[in-house]
Amino acid sequence: MGNFLELEKNYGLLCNSSDYDQARNTAVGLLKDRESKDTWRRKCQQVLMEKIDVTGFLLWFVERYPESMNDAVYEDMQCRYANQSEVPFPDPSR
């Protein structure tokens, strides 16, 4: 349920209504809007830019295991400590 709330509130990708007339009016408005297709495409692209490809990540992780474990931990720590001058442990590739 949380993913639907996020898509609705953060990205405007869902229109939720329990009122039939309101739902119908929203649908008709979307169909009449000539820019609707481009608008929704941009909204979808925004979500995809902000989220990871979970399937792609899992494939990468499994295919490269156990090295991927070190890489993933190191990348995570780099993100967490991005504003600090030094990551608390060395780069595993060195």
SSE series: HHHHH
Count the domains.
Answer: 2
Taking Cα atoms only, what radius of gyration do you get, to the nearest Å? 21 Å
Q: What is the makeup of the main sheet?
A: none
Question: What does the model show?
Answer:
The chain has 94 residues and is mainly α. The chain has 2 domains: 2-50, no CATH class; 52-94, no CATH class. The protein has 5 helices and no strands. The N and C termini lie far apart (43 Å).
In short:
The mean pLDDT is 83. The protein has 5 helices and no strands.
Please name the defining characteristics of this protein:
mainly alpha; 5 helices; 0% strand; elongated
How is the topology of this model organized?
Layout: H1 2-9, H2 20-32, H3 36-50, H4 54-64, H5 67-80
Helix pairs in contact: 4-5
